[in-house]
Amino acid sequence: MLEETRQLIYDNQVMVASLMLYQDVLQQEAWEAYVKLLHSIANHITDGHENSSRRLSYLLAYGQWFRAIAATGYSWRDYVILQILGSDNPFSQQAQTTDINHLPAPLVAAAKQDLEILEELSLWSGGKLVDLIDNGDRFLDWQTNSREISKLSPAKQSLVNKFQSNDDWAKLLPDLANYYQQFGTGIFADYTAFRWRKGHIEGIAYPDLVKLSDLIGYESQRQALYKNTEAFLSGYRALHTLLYGSRGTGKSSLVKSLMYAYSDRGLCLVEVAKNDLKDLPIIADILRQSPQKFIIFVDDLSFEEENDDYKALKVILEGNLSAQPRNLLIYATSNRRHLLREYFSDRPSLKDLADRQEVNPWDTVQEKLSLSDRFGLTLTFLQADQEIYLKIVHHLAKRAGIDLLTDDLNFRALQWATRNNGQSGRTAQQFIDHLQAELQVKNLPK
Q1: Distance of alpha carbon 87 from alpha carbon 109, whole angstroms
Q2: Per-residue pLDDT at 213
Q3: Among 267, 285, 300, CA closest to 194
Q4: Domain extent listing, the chain
Q5: Nearest CA-CA partner of 269 in 236, 232, 215
Q6: What class is the 203-381 domain?
């Protein structure tokens, strides 16, 4: 029995070492702990005999593996499957842009072999390995947390289920290639929301998910933005969009709602701060390599007179010698119609002509005003009137479970708007948050 165990551990070590394309999974903490556990067990069994002095080593390695896999929230088998889906390797990279039938035969063969290896390794969790040499109830296996599964996109859940119910993962290679082609690899396969920070793209683990059904009013603007996004996802020409209007009217929330509506179709949002706009050409070059569709989201866009970052934005909106990425749009929100701060003094006068010696002063003015014209679609959000404001309040109150008489709720909402930031969707949300807390405190037992 001990010799059989020694051979099984050795075989597993050989399989780990034999991966040709999916070696990147071994760089993850749970995999590193798994490889260390195999090594510790192998050291414990020397020449077919147990070495009791090394028992502590494999017990410690098992504890490290269990801690690492528990931190993921997934069982060992589910974890292995998800690592396959997110792997960034030559096969997954080429499968994004090339049909599997046209990929090099050795590449496909290597991918199939790796899937066979990973399937076999997924059957031998850390707990099962230790049980081979140290039987006892204390060696547990982590089970998948249902809350973690619910976080996965429908497409990812579907493919995970296929792998779970199939005993020949190599046969699922075409399904896997299709997944790579639609949802990408690496970080782009793991997240649907991103931000550009300090020169690189990072995933947002807990994005602000907004449902379209939670937004009230501005129906024509909503329809226009969704229609434009539908065209974009369908591969047609779509327009960069400027959402302009009063503060608190739900411009940002409308853009965020697209992520909830279309992430299962490969739509991703990349948040770029306005002080990082100079990096837009770099960001565009990174994103153009991925099969997903990306919306670069710039919130509260505006420029001061001395700021020339808008020139990088113009390059993306208008293009230069480089072809514009077909998988990228810019959606920006702003409180300023022309994005750059305007002064009456900007208008040229005869004195300006004499002082500055500028031959065509109106050209300078037009350059400032023309930036917003680069957006093909401009959606205007006017300040909400009382009817819309109260409609939003009642919708939010119902969602929050607040049950007040209509007249009472209206009076409180209007009073709140007068004392605070005026009638807007943001004000309505702030009012409901305050009212909900007030009612909950009032109902606390004394």
Answers
A1: 17
A2: 85
A3: 267
A4: 2-185, 203-381, 386-442
A5: 232
A6: alpha beta
